[in-house]
Amino acid sequence: MTRRRRLLSRLLVLNVILLVLSFAWYASRARGIRLALAKSGIDFYAYTLPQTTVSPAIALDILRANPVLSGALSAGELEFVLAVPLTPAEARPWADLGCAADNCIQVTLYDHQHGGTVEVVLEQETAVMLASWSDPYARPAGTPLIAERALEIAAADTQVQAILGNIKSQEPAMVPMSAWLADDACREQWCVDLTYLDPAGSGRIFHVFVNLEEERVARTFFTRAREPQAVPAIPPMQRFAFNNGCNEQYGWRVCWEMTAHDGLLFSRGTFNEQPIFNDIKITQVEAWYPSWPGGYRDEIGFAASVPPFGGTQVNDLESGFEVVQLFTEFTYWPNCICCYRYEQIGRFFADGRFELSFVSHGPGCDDLSVYRPFWRIDMDLGGEANTAWLWQDGRWTIPATEFELFPVVDDVALDGTRLAIAGGGLLYTWEMARTDPLGLDEGRLFVLQMKPGEGTGPVPTGPGDTFQPPRQWLDGDPLPQQNLVVWFVPLLKTKKLEPLWCMPDPEPGINQCEALLRISPVKELRVPTAEELALPTPTPTPTPAVTSAPAPTPTPRPVQGDDAADLILNAGCGACHQIGRIGEAHKVGPNLTNIADVAGERIPGLSAAEYIYQSIVEPGAYIVPDCPNGPCLANIMPRDYGARLTPEQIETIVNYLLFEVQNEPTAEERQSVGATVVQTPKSVPAGKTAVTPPPIAENAPVVAIQLLLVTLVLLLTMFLLGKQSGE
Questions:
Q1: How far is CA 639 from each of CA 30, 318, 618, 634, rounded to the nearest angstrom?
Q2: How many CB atoms lie within 10 A of CB 82?
């Protein structure tokens, strides 16, 4: 009897322990998600980083022992930014110096004297500096140490104090981001953007641009809020999850490893034992917002602003396989305002071709944007020197020196390609697939000679809107019979419509857009006959995205709406202009609230209505000299409104600007900082509340196991209690 009582007591204790652990698990999940919001400043940023970066103290100790670098560090000429471990493939260029997996790190230092960064490769065990080089174009990320200094600068700014009070006590919306402004010194200099929710409760994001070279706040401004989506939050357990490995299938052997900030690195790809490429990676994802004007230099990787999520997936496609890695900034995507979600995909097929795909899921920080992933492909056909071929003027030619190719999809050969690379008895053609429903499909190809220091190791981000790297490495080196590197930079354009952030459609909701590069083996480069060249060029058909979404159409997408406010919002006008109650002040475009007063005086011979109409369909015909942030910039406003808006819709907008908008209160008149929102514009939701933990249904497998264990122990306990009472 005593033995049975002891067993019963233990079961009761086990019941209690299981229940406590279950409640603790849920509490920790809720606390973890709230912690991501509640941590401020440097603590918040440190929370988002995994434990795979190198201790700054270890790296600095090695650097300070170096006689060349110690003086510059002490004088403040060099500033420590970040130290990251090199992957085996990244360490390979210095293998003959003893650099291997787990013993080499790369340190990034900002050079305040000359601009750019100094990159240093260190062997940790021997404390030896193996290599160093300067990159005057690099603009590094806002790492924890940098964020601390940026916060100090921002806290002393009167504009920041007026909006946020003590910035250090506020909840950041994003980690500090390496960013630039097209009309400010931040275009060339090193700047970081700090982001916060509007304390007034509008749901908008308040941006604080900090110039780290001049140690001042360069600009503050708001960007738009978005309505929350009816989708569950992402469970946080898979944050920073990835799987390094190799796969041998369908004749291919491909290995991959997650890097600190250059995405998933595919290395030493072979097909039927023939070398095809040495390595492939994404060095940065540039986000460009015309309404600022400016954007971010995103990075993807285990120590990047957008880290991996959910593990690396290998999927069998029956005729090949794909390696897929998702990257997401927050675990509560998509119900964050400024948040980014990317996919990097490599597909390898049984016929020897391979495809590189990049998917952006959005939403970013504003309605109109362009995402530019920077792919770097180090070719190695046959393990020998390779030669590039370029289709131009109706024939294939061999370029003598390095070149930049734009556009990629126009003036192509009969098979849709413009580039080919040959070597080792192999020949591969390159094709940018058409995926843009507006029919633009813009992208650039750079073909360079592979040289040490030009992207062979981890690559820091470059200045915005310059295609650097790799453009700075176009220095006339010969191409025939050389080791070749191809950079592919597609431009994925977004739009806003009820709301849409990316392309292709369906609508409404969160919609991803995809850029796809096909690299295919061919037996020969066929030269078309005169009769074939004389045939009309067929209309290209866009390639569907990777999901089950309907294929986009190549014709410009009409702007939906009947009344002026809907048309202006759906066309994205409010992203760049303030128009009465629509849009925000201090945007890239001029304030159009009082355009009726001056429109008739802009161009002699044009009435106010004619001038506004022409400005919509021909935005480059007349450039206003003054905009909120300086001189107005050309080629910022979209030039396809004449095709996307009907004449009746344009007349509706013209009449609104001439006769209605002046009678409406502006956003600033309706809403002041710290005051209660009296009226919220259509595109701005009510104030955000704290993020709540995901519902139990999201974690059904884990919940089911927990309930099953508790139930079994409880049933066993009840059985023993009943048996004991019966005796």
A1: 47, 43, 7, 11
A2: 26
Mean pLDDT across the stretch 161-179?
91
CATH of domain 56-135: 3.10.450
Instruction: Give the three-class secondary structure for 119.
Output: strand
Distance of CA 404 to the CA centre of its chain: 23
Tokens of 525: 């480069």
Which among 693, 692, 691 is positioned nearest to 29, based on CA atoms? 693
Q: What is the pLDDT of residues 237-268, one digit of tens each?
A: 567 889 999 999 999 999 999 999 999 999 99
> In 3D, which of 152, 171, 170 has the Cα closest to residue 330?
171
* DSSP state letters, 155-214: HT-HHHHHHHSSGGGS-BSS--EEEEETTSGGGTS-EEEEEEE-TTSS--EEEEEEETTT
CATH class of 236-459+469-534: mainly beta
- CB atoms near residue 481 (< 10 Å): 11
The C-alpha atoms of residue 684 and residue 498 are separated, in whole angstroms, by 13
pTM here is: 0.74
pLDDT for residue 608:
84
Nearest residue to 514 (alpha-carbon basis) of 444, 431, 433: 433
Distance in angstroms (rounded) separating the CA atoms of residues 529 and 608: 54
Mean pLDDT of the chain: 79
The label of the residue with tokens 């995901």 reads 694
Q: Which amino acid is at 232?
A: P
Match 């006008």 to its residue by tokens.
573
Helices (H), 484-540: 530-534
- Which range, 373-387, 504-518, 662-676, is most confident? 373-387
| The pLDDT of residue 25 is above 60 | no
Q: Which residues contact 610 (CB under 8 A, 6 or more apart)?
A: none
Residue 397, pLDDT > 60, answer: yes
Burial status of residue 610 (CB atoms within 10 A of its CB: 0-12, 13-18, 19 or more) = middle
pLDDT score of 468: 92
The rounded distance, in Å, linking the Cα atoms of 654 and 440 is 27
Which homologous superfamily does the CATH classification assign to the domain defined by 564-663? Cytochrome c-like domain (1.10.760.10)
